[in-house]
Structures are given as C-alpha cells and as structure tokens.
Amino acid sequence: MERTQRENIFAGLWYGDSKPSMVTFLRPLSDTLSKLADDGIIVQPAELTSEPFVCKVLTIAGTCDLPAKALVLNSVQYNGKFGCHKCKQPGKTVKTGERGHAHVFPFQHRDPKGPLRTNEKFVLDMKIANETKTIVKGVKGPCCLSKLKMYNLIKGTAVDYMHSVLLGVMRLLMVLWFSTEFSRQPFSMAKNTKEIDRRFQEVCPPSSTRYPRSVASHRMFFKASEYRDILLFYGPVIFRGILATMYYNHFLLLSEAIFILLMESISVEQIHHAEKLLWNFCSQMATLYGERYETANVQLLVHLADSVRDLGPLWTHSCFHFEDKNGYLLRLIHGTQNIPMQMVNAVKLVQSIPVISQTIKPGNVIAEFYRHMTKDDSFCQENKDLSRIKLYGASSERLLDTVHLSALQIHAGHCINSGTVSIFHRAQVKRNYLTSKHYGKGNRRNNFTGFFFK
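The structure corresponding to this sequence follows.
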C-alpha cells in the first residue's frame, strides 16, 4: 500500500531526552491536515484530456501506543484514573505486595464498555479542564487534533492491537505461564518448557514467518510478530494438554476473537461474536489470574470490536508498519555526532528516490541497480504478470495427468495443447519464497502448503 511506503510515512522527528509538547510538536502536521481538508489539492487525472480537479482530504483515523496516546490527546496516562480513552470507567487501585500498588480496571458485568466517551463530551471536558486548570474525567486540556475537520477524537483514535493485545495481553499471559515467580500457580507451565520448546521445534512455518524461538531462553525478547504467531497459530496446538483446561479454554477465547477481527472481510455477525468472546475473556481474568492483572490492556479488549466497526479490521490501523519504519530510521544513523542532521539528510534522500525513479527507463543497467537497491519489482522487463515470479534451480520435464491438465486450463482460461511442462522446485512470488514438497533443503520450513477461503 502506498501509505505504508517508507517515503510516505515520515512526518516529524524529535531529538532530545524529554518528550515534546504535543500541542507544539504536532502543530505543523495539524495545520497541514487542516489545509488539506479546507483547501484541498489540485489533482491532474491520468487522462490528459480530463480537467484538473480539487481533491479535499479528511483525516479519519490515527493510531499510537498508550503512552503516546495520552500525550496526543492530552489526557492522563493509561494506568491512571479515567485512563481509558474509550470510556469513563475510573478503575481502582489495588495492592500488589507489601508496598506495591497498581491501577486496574475490573470488568463491569452490567455495562462492560460504558459509560462510553463521545467526541462532543470529550471536547467539552477539554474546554472545562482548560478553563479550570483541573483534570476532568482524565482530560487535562485541549489537544491539536480537536481542530481537525470531521475528525472524531474517540472513534477515530484506534486501539492498536499490536501494543494492546500482542505486547500487552499476550506478553502478560506468557509471563504468568512461564515465569518461575508463578511456578506454584495452577496456570503455570514453567515446568514444561522443555516439552513446549520441543513442540515449537517441530513447527515448520513458511519463510514469510519467523521461525519459533525457545520459550525458555528467548521469551523475554519475543517481538510482536512472535506473540501474534503464538496467539493465532502455534499456541492453540502446542499448549493443548499442557496448559490446564480452564486456562486453555480461556486462552482460546482471545485467540478466536483476534483471528476474526484480523480477517480481510468481516460480517456484522462475526464482529458481534468476537465481541462476546472478548467480554467472556475479560470477565474471567480476575477469577483465573487475580484482580491485579485486569490491566489497561485487558480493559481495552472490551472496546476492540467497536474499533473494528468504526475503522475496519485490526490490521488496517495497527502500529506494525510504523514500528518497522522506526527500525529503518535507526539504520540510517551511522555515527554518534550530529544525529538530527544525519536523520534529516537520510530521510530527504529516501523521499527523493521515488521522484528520481520516474526518470529511469526500464530494461537498462540503471533500472536493474535501482530495483536491486529498493527491491522494487516494477522495473522488471517482459510480461508484468510474470515479472513478479522468479524460478530457481534446475528444471525437469513432466507429463501432467488429466486432472492437473484440466486445472491448469481452467486457471489459464484457454485450451492447452501439450501436457508436458517444466517443473521447478523453488520460486519467488513478489517477496515470498515458495518451495515444492520435494525440495530437500527446506525441511525446517513449509513453503508448499496453501489455504484458500471463500
């Protein structure tokens, strides 16, 4: 998608030990977005005979992790009283030891996700907080996003499942299950790490997915994508028979709900079903693990279905692309001196490359060099449908049987005279690597199995 390209995702940079004032830091962005909504931009259609027209752009969604969200919306932190930006549940403070305390959000059976905040009431709370210099229902004062035309501060500000579900709830469950601190608890799997690691080693994922790492030695370094794989794919199979039944069934509620909310096409009934699963998961959290673990991330699960209703599937407004770009930006720094200018110069170069590429003609040495440096396959020669497929290794001839020949003809859309084809065991389609089942070197990966859903 164009909006996730590296040259299109960079808007601002702050360098320093302290966090910036968002009202000041985001003002240039806010002014630009407001200008796009009010004045628009002139667009020239691809057909030169068509007249240019003015296109106005409205901001409808924004996403960030919880600490950043509190700064952007100018509200209290997520672990404070009225810390949820979706509802006005105050939560409560509970003891975590002799001296420790934590602010939690107990599940409200009568009204799980209420009383809901609205954009109008949130703006009013900002105004009152600014006039009285007090905190009103968790709101400290005005924020720059409130000036955006048609932007709904409540519905438009998404719940990022990468931080709240994967790095939040899923990481919490993994700590409870495998930390030696909880080894005497009925939900602990700390004594079974060797068996679980053995099962993980038997998993053969495709090349597009991280290979499972050891729970015993690498759990504390798992990335969000690894928690996602455990939640959706590995966990329901590997934990079966090891995690106690009631805790295993509780985990499956979360797994099924998130799987549904991540689908590309979701019906209203499916969203409602996922919401009930998440509410059931949250309602059992205190009973199974203790009130202490009804954290802000667990509380956000009750609002996750509404976030999908308002903005679409979870993957459309997650922070995965932005976190990827953070790593990319770090790799642009090659010294310890004058880091801000290093970053600015590198970003300017990245943003200039697509403009320069428009002057490159496909098929020459420059185009090949550009494609190699940027991994852009649009500069490949020959048929565009075939240019994204690369075949590797030696080929062999094979005569197709009637079933496979018929299937190939249906796929091609025309009659095929010869049933003899060339067989390759390795191929690259876009950035995905595929291997046949008979490719001997791919025994740790499964790149030959596909699933198709209607």
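Residues 268-289 form the longest helix (22 residues).
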